[in-house]
Amino acid sequence: MTSPGPWPAITGIAYGGDYNPEQWPRETWLEDMALMREAGVNFVSVGIFSWALLEPKEGLFEFAWLDDLLDLLHENGIGADLGTPTASPPAWFFAEHPDARVISREGHVMGFGSRGMASHSHPAYREAAVRIASALAERYGKHPAVKMWHIHNEYGVPVGEDYSPASVAAFRSWLQSTYSSLDALNDAWGTAFWGQRYEDWEHIGAPAVAPSVVNPAQRLDFARFTDDQLLECFKAERDAIRVHASQPITTNLMANQSYTTDLWHWAGEMDIIANDHYLTAADPNGHIGLALAADLTRSLAGGKPWILLEHSTSAVNWQPRNVAKRPKELIRNSMQHYARGADAVMFFQWRASRKGAEKFHSAMLPHAGTNSRVFREVVDLGAKLGAVAETQGSRVKADVAMLWDSVSIWAQRLEWRPSEDVEPTDTIRAYYEALWRDGVTTDFVHPEGDLSGYRLVVVPATYLLTRAAAENLTEFARKGGTVLVSFFSAAVDEHDAVHEGGFLAPLKELLGTTVEEYLPLREGVRAGISYGADAAVTLDGDVWQEDLALAGAEVKGTYLAGPGVGKAAITRNQVGEGTGWYVSTRLGAEDLRQIFADVYKDAGIVPPNPERDLEIVTRHGDNQDFVIAINHSDDAVAVNAAGTNLLTGEELAGEWELGAGDVAVIRAAAAPEGGGR
Ligand code: GAL
After folding, report:
1. What is the pTM of this model?
2. Ligand 1 centre from 348 Cα, in Å?
3. pLDDT tens-digit readout, 469-501
4. Fewer CB atoms < 10 Å away: N or C end of the chain?
5. 449: nearest Cα among 299, 281, 275, 665
6. What's the gap in Å between 276 CA and the centre of ligand 1?
């Protein structure tokens, strides 16, 4: 077995996209090579959906077209990210193994003619996937064009949970190795409730749709099991490739856009972290969601450079309203990912497909051809990324971390919660947006992860919080850190059981309060709060209040209306050398900024507070800082940064104007002091 080679395998910032030449005649490939060179493309992902072409019959491989393609790419100086095509098994596979088809929670058997793997637990699928991955690695492990391996595609999308017999059997084995005894399982799942107690492993099934709500602990374990099964599939292919090939191996995560996988779990198994991100067209501030995705991806990479493996040049084709990007938006979006640590900027896809389900999806080379705004911007972006090649490997640092826990999100999203209006990812986004607007760069951490490098840790919507995580946060504060916790956090433990001592009990020492009762609000009811020293500020919450059982915390804000009127809404508590803040209602980003202003003081953070819609992030090189300024507004904005704009060659000093929608990458004249992280 060989060990993984280092990234970067591409010099400078890698640039390109998914390339599916099998959809086009050979002449088009030659045109593609010329146009890719014109656009500065140096890296493409190939073969991701090519299983039926590579293995047209079981065990019969046809590699000639891929030999030709990889040679052609190499001759043109373009590296390949070679996919294993296991997200889309061929028709022969399903004909031979009809029982390997996925069954949905509702009991529907998934048909063919789309994409999505077969049952992740079916032995025939696993065997066939490893066979094709191995065959590819044996043939191309030493090919000079191949710079990286790309396993499967977006694990968990479109297929996550599988209720087929193969999956149910694997779930039982998973439960046996997790719990060892039925007594332990019955206890963890609380099966005394509704008479669910099990006396035989064979009686346990997957949590399929039932007459009423299914045991939440069972559903949570099924989500964990699903994640484990998907990861086992990844590892099996990865290990098969590693026998023959030394290039780094990755898969494309969907950091905050698909929630099937436990991201931290995967990060430890990948040689380099790669992510796909698509703007939510309905969100007018989609660029803030993008920044969140990029920060989360960088955090999964432990701060090391990462790869943006897919995003779109303009509209996608799978949202309710597929809004086209406005001029220069594709450049701003790309540069945001780059600013937040990506050393590769890639799109889905190079050439727009004429046929099939994705013909209305944008591409680097659109249906309109080269005489189009999108292609001109693609060429411009290639030049820009070429101009910042020296920044490769530089890193972003943050003083603030936010917790991210996929398992808590899974748990909170189950049925019969106190209010359907509370969505964990909305809360995460609101807290993130407040920090973004203040110009504060944020990392993400696992609740039980290392917090020691941060001044402030934000805990939005961590409904499920283990005792170990609570101790981690409390210890961080005892040693001088500041923690800010949102409503509806630390309600349950890892089995979705309410914490002994009640809601928030594990954080009582940190926050100086627990929750006596949740007070969800009727639709449309507002929860005004008077906040600040002389109640000078009024904040506007909604959806939720809590009746807090104060145990030492200082009251910073009081409810002005709603069932909690007159009671504590926002609290601050001294613990050891640090502080714990608690916000017991839902607030929007602008109101949260008022609270953050005080929280920063406790944390010793001076927020840069840039002009509205100006995004500034610093990448730190070994001897040099690079300041990336992105103007998301329709007006020119003033920027204060001295150095050379690598995109134009201009020398900048003092205050200067960044044009509407423009981007600058400044090699800083000197490392910024304080606040410049
Ligand atoms: C991604 C997927 C690509 C393509 C793209 C379209 O989720 O990996 O293959 O379908 O969406 O936006």
Report:
1. 0.97
2. 6
3. 999 999 999 999 999 999 999 999 999 999 999
4. N
5. 299
6. 8
